[in-house]
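Title: Comparing notes on inverse folding

I've been comparing how different people in this forum approach sequence design from structure. To keep things fair, I'm posting one structure and asking everyone to reply with a full sequence. Here's the target:
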């Protein structure tokens, strides 16, 4: 019984460490349908590949976050501008 509990604790520890590395940052379930002016956008990130819907998370100067569909052209352009101005 102690061996089973020990094994279970070990597996939970390994699993929780794996979750930290692969867990989605943000996923979107509701989407903003209007355009956000480029001057109001602070950053743009993609949702994690494990999310059900591909999307961009737009962070504004007022500290708000908006989910915008991955196929929205202005959001793609904002993301491309963001990544080109901050190369890794």
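Reply #1:
Here's my take.
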């Amino acid at each position: 019984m102690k061996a089973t509990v020990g094994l279970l604790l070990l597996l939970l520890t390994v699993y929780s460490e794996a979750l930290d590395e692969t867990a989605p940052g943000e996923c979107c379930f509701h989407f903003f349908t209007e355009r956000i002016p480029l001057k109001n956008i602070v950053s743009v990130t993609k949702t994690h590949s494990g999310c059900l819907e591909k999307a961009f998370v737009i962070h504004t100067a007022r500290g708000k976050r908006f989910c915008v569909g991955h196929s929205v052209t202005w959001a793609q352009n904002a993301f491309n501008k963001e990544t080109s101005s901050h190369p890794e």
